[in-house]
Amino acid sequence: MSAAATSSVEPAEPAEPAEPTGTTREVNEAPETARGVVGGTRAFLRLVLIEHSVFALPFAYISALWAMSETTGHVNWVKLLLITVAMVGARTFAMAMNRIIDREIDARNPRTQMRELVTGAVSVKTAYLGSFAALVVFLAAAASLNRLSLFLAPVAVIPLVLYPYGKRFTNYPHAILGIAQAIGPMGAWIGVTGHWSWQATLLGLAVGFWIGGFDLIFACQDVAADRVIGVKSVPARFGIAAALRASIATHVITLGLLVWFGVVADGGVFWWIGIAVVAAAFWYEHSLVKPDDLSKVNRAFFTTNGFVGISLFCCALVDLIVGGLGA
After folding, report:
1. Which of 117, 203, 265, 268 supports an S-S bond with 185, CB 3.0-4.6 Å?
2. What is the mean pLDDT of residues 288-315?
3. Is pTM, for the whole model, over 0.90?
4. What are phi and psi of 322, to 5 degrees?
């Protein structure tokens, strides 16, 4: 459920999407068209949308730096690097597996027919190799942090793989995605301290509701195709208007959890400024999308949500520095 937005009105009886033309010889045995190591790497990075790491990384950094502030009072750059590697590795693995598992669905959806595994720009074999390499990187980074991080790393992998299958058996796959993303801040805290934290759990839940909420918006683009193909989602089951209302509710909960975290973690003035900025961004995001006009979903998803993570991180960083966090 990701890509460019399309203007759409919820149909009463959606038409059968056209079968893809010139997309594959066989979806599960697509030929490699990217030439050379550099071209193949670029195609794989496009496949996994590596730039979308910006959504989850800032919250992992907030959690890690807050943990460092409360334990040693200074930044542990080695652990911060390892957390970055672990986050990017886990996300790359998740995206590659998502694309592999969903390649036949993507071939039937007009919006996703040009994805690399459908067109053959990346072969299934290459995608599997890339996902395996990313998984090894994730596990190695977790092991380098501490024993608990390594022990819990396989647990974090489960919702990453379960999410693409979720749309086949539940109308609420967005919740599985939220759980997968909620693990990031919790894992970052554990990576720094070696133990679980209630504070990090609040931050993780905030991330889970946030990302689950904008996945609800994103899924609205595919209502017609999903109903024909049989893909399950809140918009496909209950309609676009209901999905947008549910998205607003999840983002209100996100704000509540961020406030709760600020109280528990004794956040300063800049943390509260950050929450105000996030609230304004949420209002703007939801003003862009309407049940009868999804033409601005792309702006709501990429621009606004990227801004949410980065702006809150910047405010949290200033708050921690003012509070005494040293380099």
Report:
1. 203
2. 87
3. no
4. -60, -35
